[in-house]
Amino acid sequence: MNQPRQQQQPPGTEAGLTPQADHGEDSYRGAGRLQDKATVITGADSGIGRAVALAFAREGADVLIAYLNEHEDAKETARLVEEAGRKAVLVAGDLADPAFCRSIVDKAVAEFGRIDVLVNNAAFQMSHESLEEIPDEEWDYTFKVNITAMFHLCKAAVKHMKPGSSIINTSSVNSDNPKPTLLAYATTKGAIANFSAGLAQLLAGKGIRVNSVAPGPIWTPLIPSTMPPDQVESFGQQVPMKRPGQPKECAPVYVLLASDEASYISGARIAVTGGTPIL
Question: Which CATH number goes with the domain that contains 218?
Answer without folding.
Answer: 3.40.50.720
